[in-house]
TrEMBL record:
SUPFAM superfamilies: GroES-like (SSF50129), NAD(P)-binding Rossmann-fold domains (SSF51735). This is Alcohol dehydrogenase. It comes from Streptomyces smaragdinus. The gene is adh_3. Belongs to the zinc-containing alcohol dehydrogenase family. Its cofactor is Zn(2+). GO terms for molecular function: alcohol dehydrogenase (NAD+) activity; zinc ion binding. It comes from the Bacteria. Its EC number is 1.1.1.1. The lineage of its organism: Bacteria, Bacillati, Actinomycetota, Actinomycetes, Kitasatosporales. Residues 8-343 form the Enoyl reductase (ER) domain. Keywords: Metal-binding, Oxidoreductase, Zinc.
């Protein structure tokens, strides 16, 4: 088959590789019908994720059809169309029993495109299939459902739920890329008083308005002053970091009110300064996390009911064999306006 293979920092290639095979009885092999590119993939390509070794097929998001299933698989069968989750839980260890699937101790967690071959390929082996793949209703579009592999559960769990968004809250989302936009859409479900989106790209701020932000502000136009003005000097109840760079994290800690919460969603490749000299007295909670995907079944139900604005995020479409072009477009999102690029098999 053909797949996108990582060859070290700054290097990847669409090339022929061996087809995946079942390894454990809990595995399935899935024919990829739709996949996408994540900001985390860009971090891997930059060399920010040293655990990913050269020779690994990238990608951790897909919708596909099961073509092989191990003898131990109970939840799906050959021929089923499924959502492939970005997290593969064993279901047995302490963390999995607590639904902290991202911290799986038995070879699961975030492994696809990270520690084992991933989904940016014609076929992918998915371990721990009973919890890692989800059957899709016939009426759900593959190219829309793929956005529930990662960005919607990540934004919802690590941003909205970890942030503790409540009715009436002032919520600030720093970074209006795909994760930040999905956070705006799912935060809206909790009736906050206002959602403020911060970004440098006007096109992304426009998208944030469409997806639930009440106020938008460029990052270079004093968002701290705006938040103070809108909150009577108090600061935001919940601030979500959805970029993954030191400056934006430090901005979040300045925007949050005393007693508020900073929910870090961004993937950080460099050290960040934690200004405890300012924060120690403010009763601030800082939450970090890797998505666990325990919310995926609920989000799938919402998608099937037409309650999630996933189509707004899919700005560019490519064939799977055009993935190198898709990476270029996604990597230059400030110029191209790309939010999520969707890659589908065939023409």
């Amino acid at each position: 088959m053909e797949a996108l293979v990582y060859h070290g920092a700054g290097k990847s290639a669409w090339e022929k590789v061996a087809d995946p095979e079942l390894v454990d009885p809990t595995d399935v092999v899935v024919e990829v019908l739709a996949t996408t590119i994540c900001g985390t993939d860009l971090h891997i390509l930059k060399g920010d994720v040293p655990e990913t070794k050269p020779g690994t097929i990238l990608g951790h998001e897909a919708v596909g059809r099961v073509v092989e299933a191990g003898a131990g698989v109970r939840s799906v069968s050959v021929g089923d169309r499924v959502l492939v989750s970005c997290v593969s839980p064993c279901g047995q260890c302490r963390y999995c029993r607590e639904q902290a699937y991202g911290q799986c101790l038995n070879g699961g967690g975030w492994v696809l495109g990270h520690l084992i071959n991933g989904t940016q390929a014609a076929y992918v082996r998915v371990p721990f299939a009973d919890l890692a793949v989800h059957p899709l209703p016939s009426g759900v579009d593959s190219a829309e459902a793929v956005l529930l592999s990662d960005i919607f559960p990540t934004s919802y769990e690590v941003g909205v739920l970890n942030g503790g968004v409540r009715p009436g809250d002032t919520v600030v989302i720093v970074g209006a890329g795909p994760i930040g936009l999905a956070a705006a859409a799912t935060a809206k479900l909790y009736s906050p008083g206002r959602i403020i989106a911060v970004d440098l790209a006007d096109s992304r701020l426009e998208a944030a308005r469409r997806l639930g932000a009440d106020v938008v502000v460029r990052a270079d136009e004093n968002p701290e002053d705006l938040v103070r003005e809108l909150t009577g000097g108090l600061g935001a109840d919940v601030v979500m970091e959805a970029v993954g760079v030191p400056d934006t994290f430090e901005l979040c800690t300045r925007l949050v009110r005393a007693g508020g919460t900073v929910a870090n969603v961004g993937v950080h490749g460099k050290p960040v300064t934690l200004h405890l000299e300012d924060l120690w007295i403010k009763n601030v909670t800082i939450r970090t996390g890797l998505v666990d995907t325990y919310s995926t079944p609920v989000l799938l139900d919402m998608l099937a009911a037409g309650k999630l604005p996933v189509a707004e995020l899919a700005t560019h479409r490519f064939r799977l064999d055009q993935i190198e072009e898709a990476y270029d477009v996604f990597g230059r999102s400030a110029e191209t306006g790309a939010l999520k690029v969707i890659l589908t098999a065939g023409s």
